[in-house]
Amino acid sequence: MQTKRWFVAVLLLIFGFMSTVARAAPGYVDGNDVAVWQICPITNISAIASQNKVGFFTDPSTSYPKTGDTGYIRAVGSNISPCSNDTIGFDFFLPDGATLAIDATNPVRCYAIKFTTPTQVIEFTNNPPGFQGNCSQTPSAGTSGGLFFGYAVVAPGWQVDIRVPVRYNKQLLGLAGPPSHRLTAVAQTAWGNVAPFVPVTVYYQASFQNLQSSGIGATTATLGVNLFSYFKGGQLYVDYGTTNSFGLTTPPATVPNTALNFPSVSTSLTGLSPNTTYYWRYRFVTDAGTFNSPTQTFTTSAAPTFALTVNKNGTGSGTVTSSPTGINCGATCSASFTQGTTVTLNAVPASGSVFAGWSGGGCSGTGTCTVTMNAAQTVTATFNTAPAAGLTITAAKPPNAPTDATRNKGQSNVLMLAFTLNPSQATQLQSITLTASGSGNDSLDLTVVKLIRDANANGQIDSGEVPIASGTFSADNGTLTLTLSTPLALSPGSSQFLVAADIASSLAAHPAVLRAQSLPALPAPLLLTLLPLMLLGAWRMRSLRVGFLALALALTLAACGGGPNTTPVNKTYQINLTALSAQGNPTVSGLPISGATITVQK
After folding, report:
1. Which of 303, 503, 333, 509 is nearest to 410 (CA)?
2. In whole angstroms, how far apart are CA 596 and each of 266, 396, 403, 405, 413?
3. Beta strand pairing call for 392-396 and 587-589
4. CA angle, corner 200, sides to 199 and 202, nearest 5?
5. 401 Cβ neighbours under 8 A, 6+ residues apart
6. Do 207-299 and 392-509+572-601 come out as alike in CATH topology?
7. What's the rounded Cα separation, in Å, for the pair 291 and 283?
8. Domain ranges of the chain
9. Distance CA 404, CA 83 (A)
């Protein structure tokens, strides 16, 4: 009898395996049937009471479920007893990562099915009256420690089929996986318990939820996603670009393999182009493959703009235009430009006018003005009436001009020169040219030379009168041109100016020249002693030439006598106005104008 029992069992295992292979097509993938044996009460013959199996459902479009999918699992017990009814229920043990997914759309379903002719199906999901069994939407603890959903009393030729919805949250390897990758249901029958199982295969896929873009500006955007990584580690990227081919990729975020999902991902994009539509997606790279979110789009806002305003000033007229276009002032003297734009302004004077220069926008001079628009800007262009033909300036030395004087080393603002300018029409002083002379070294001893407008024409440097140009001589007795950074407007009539210098605290020395007064004085007794000795030497050498040489040397030494020289050596300095330039190239008369001779003791 025992041998027969094992033989039948082997046949059943083979049949179950073959049935599993045959059911490899989409549908339920069931494990092998496991039998419960009984001794019939009347015949006392050993027979199979029930066959029990478990399985999991796969979508018809795929071979196996994927992570994130919801699908049904089932346990089936068939009463094939030749002699008695049976009571069959199941304790479910879910595979690794699977969780219950019971809701109104996917309830627990319980069936009693007659598999002999004629067939019949009774669904007792809602526990119909008079049916011997029970089906619950909420599991209880089974006697074997699993999840128990119900049972049914079935006669021979009937089976119990209980189906439970679950969600798969991990990749499962089926036959290649460990025991934790199995679905097991302990069948509890009137004749004993068995534990059929089936290895579960779940393919891996990542899913992306709550894709969103926010904080969109002209050049920035923030992207977000909730990545369901299903306990798989990898690298998470954002691909983005102005076409759906993307082209740009952010550095990756590392996703650990320790959680169901990687929530609240936030990715900042910078350096975007204003008013542009961008395509983007998240891309998750794992050892199971690469998974892309659906492609999304956002559009950046237009860049902020700032106003550039041109004011015109002066006695003349003209036009200011911009590149890029926008300002034609003329009529349009203000325009808005996108942030970061470089705007170049060009000033063209009208007939009879001259362009005198820019101010304020950081521009100066008479060339083009370049402004970077990172804030609102205002630029002023000055146009003056052009000097008429025949413009002249009468230059002269004023009565209160500085006179010859002695000054000390290290003294500042020493007045060297004064002059007046008397233009016949309005013009602008642009530069003056000075020439130095004297025994002092102008390039080393005069540390700075200054041009000052003498506003009240008193011949003195008063409080508030500051240099309008300055410089230094590059060579002794050289020429120095002082150019005004902003031309100075001169009206018809007299305008007085001063030239002052700062004197160094230590004056430079000139090359030594042998002069009598610079040689040491010799006492007369020493000269009387040296002269006979030199003449005696010449007589002994019998040389007339040596005698004359000795006599000349004696006379020279005599000339050097008379006591030590105590007269100090003085240096002199003089600065003269030799030329000037003004708007309209006027004819200048009265030059040169000589300055005072300043003596400084060395």
Report:
1. 503
2. 79, 14, 5, 7, 14
3. parallel
4. 150
5. 417, 418, 419, 459, 595, 596
6. yes
7. 6
8. 2-202, 207-299, 305-385, 392-509+572-601, 521-559
9. 149
- State the residue for tokens 């911009």: 322
Over its C-alpha atoms, the chain yields an Rg (Å, rounded) of: 56
Are 470 and 449 within 8 A, CB to CB? yes
CB under 8 Å to 237, separation ≥6 — which residues? 249, 250, 251, 252, 253, 282, 283, 284, 285
Mean pLDDT, residues 307-321: 93
Report the Cα 557 to chain-centroid distance in Å.
84
Q: Can you list the alpha helix ranges (DSSP code H) found in 23-91?
A: none
Q: Domain 392-509+572-601: which topology?
A: Immunoglobulin-like (2.60.40)
Whether a cis peptide bond, with omega within 30° of 0, leads into 41 is no
Structure tokens at 557: 């030494």
Q: Any idea which architecture 207-299 has in CATH?
A: Sandwich (2.60)
Condensed to tens digits (0 to 9), the pLDDT of residues 491-542 reads 888 899 999 999 999 998 755 443 433 444 445 454 455 555 555 554 455 5
- How far CA 319 is from CA of 125, 163, 306, 336, in Å, comes to 91, 88, 22, 18
Q: Say which CATH topology domain 2-202 has.
A: Immunoglobulin-like (2.60.40)
Q: How many CB atoms lie under 10 A from the CB of residue 535?
A: 15
Q: With DSSP H G I counted as helix, E B as strand and the rest as coil, what are the percentages for the chain, rounded to 5?
A: 10, 50, 40
Asked whether the CA dihedral 200, 203, 205, 207 is positive or negative, the reply is negative
Whole-Å CA distances, 125 to 30, 58, 85, 136:
22, 22, 21, 8
Scanning the structure block, which residue is given the tokens 């025992």?
A: 2
What distance in Å separates the CA atoms of residue 456 and residue 462, rounded to the nearest whole number? 9
Select the more confidently predicted residue: 455 or 3.
455
In a 3-state reduction of DSSP, which class is residue 530?
A: helix
> Phi/psi of residue 455, each to 5°?
-60, -40
Burial class (CB in 10 A: 0-12, 13-18, 19+), 544: exposed
Q: Could you report the per-residue pLDDT of 143-181, keeping only the tens digit for each?
A: 999 999 999 999 999 999 999 999 999 999 999 999 999
Tokens of 516: 């009598």
DSSP states along 199-223: E-EEB---EEEEEEEE---SS-EEE
